[in-house]
Amino acid sequence: MTTTVAIALYEGFDELDAIGPYEVFETARAFGGEIRATLRTLDPVDTVTASHGLRVAVDGTLSGTEFDVLLVPGGGWSSRPEHGAWGEAERRDLPERIAETHAADTTVASVCTGGMILARAGVLDGRPATTHASALADLRETDALVREERVVDDGDVLTAGGVTSGLDLALHLVERECDAELAERVATELEYDRREVYSPRTTS
Q1: Structural fold of domain 3-189
Q2: pLDDT tens per residue, range 120-174
Q3: Which helix (H) or strand (E) holds 32?
Q4: Is the pLDDT of residue 191 over 80?
Q5: Which 8-state DSSP code applies to residue 34?
Q6: Disulfide check for 72: which of 68, 81, 114, 123 has CB 3.0–4.6 Å away?
Q7: Which long-range contacts (CB under 8 A, 24 or more apart) does 94-101 make?
Q8: Phi, psi torsion values for 47, nearest 5 degrees
């Protein structure tokens, strides 16, 4: 059965946080892996503008729970901009949707300061998690158990640190949902050296 990954987009998201994992998942699919990524928003729109000005077409909305993994990118936290992760956390609509999705037994994941949106949703409470180095102090003010790791896999909640760590998270998901050989093939295709993932389920 195909694992479907919904990547949540919003105005001001960081390009690589979302597009990096998207390329990993779709490369895996091109190699025959049963995994597929889509780009989604809360409300129906045609395009979203990312933090560096890239305009991205959207596949659909985050309504329903027809996906297996919800991945939330970061972007725009430290300077507290209206558009970006900070603005989305403050508006609370996306955190509420994340909480609903997780409660419906969907795995949730984040890249960079997308972890702060997950924290606002309450899904990191009492769980090991990470985020971009610039937001670790803010994450420590939540109920998350902060780990200064590149990627943290806590089963149905995964978090990654800054920007390029989204590639490690996505490759880890490909390995977890498909197989290790496929993940290594994708990493080779992308000419990317994978980094270790911390998982309390497998680390003593």
Answers
A1: Rossmann fold (3.40.50)
A2: 999 999 999 999 999 999 999 999 999 999 999 999 999 999 989 999 999 999 9
A3: none
A4: yes
A5: S
A6: 114
A7: 94/8, 94/10, 94/42, 94/121, 95/120, 95/121, 95/122, 96/121, 97/42, 97/62, 98/8, 98/70, 98/72, 98/123, 99/123, 101/62, 101/65, 101/70
A8: -140, 160
* Tens-digit pLDDT profile for residues 40-63: 999 999 999 999 999 999 999 998
- The pTM of this model reads 0.96
- The helix (H) or strand (E) run that includes residue 177 is helix 165-177
Beta bridge partners of 7: 39, 71
Which ranges in 31-77 belong to alpha helices (H)? none
Q: In the chain, how many H helices and how many E strands?
A: 7, 11
Instruction: Give the model confidence (pLDDT) of 14-29 as tens digits.
Output: 999 999 999 999 999 9
Sequence spans of domains, the chain: 3-189
Residue with tokens 């919904």: 6
